Amino acid sequence: MHRAPRVLIHACALALLLMPALALGALASVDTPANQDYLVRIWGADEGMPMASVTDVAQTPDGYLWCGTLVAGLMRFDGVNFVSFSAANIPEIQSEGIHKLAVDQAGRLWINTLNNALVVWDATGFQSAVATGVRVNRLLWSAGDEIIFLEDGGKLFRLQRTGQGWSGESIPLPEVKARQVYADAEGRIWYLRTNNVLASWQQGKHLTLDSPPGLEVRQIRQLAADRLGQVWVGTDQMLARWQGDRFVPVDPGGDQGQLTIKRIVPAGGGSLWVEANGRMRRLAEGRWVAESSAWKNDFSKLGLLQFVCVDSEGGIWTGARDSGLIQLSPDGAVTRLTTRDGLPSNSLLFASEDRQGNIWSGYARGGLIQVRPRLFGTVAKAQGLSDTLVSTVCQDTEGAVWIGTHSGTVARWQEGRCTNIDLPASRTSRPTVVTADAAGRKWFGVPNVGLL
Question: What CA–CA distance (Å, rounded) separates 417 from 399?
Answer without folding.
Answer: 13
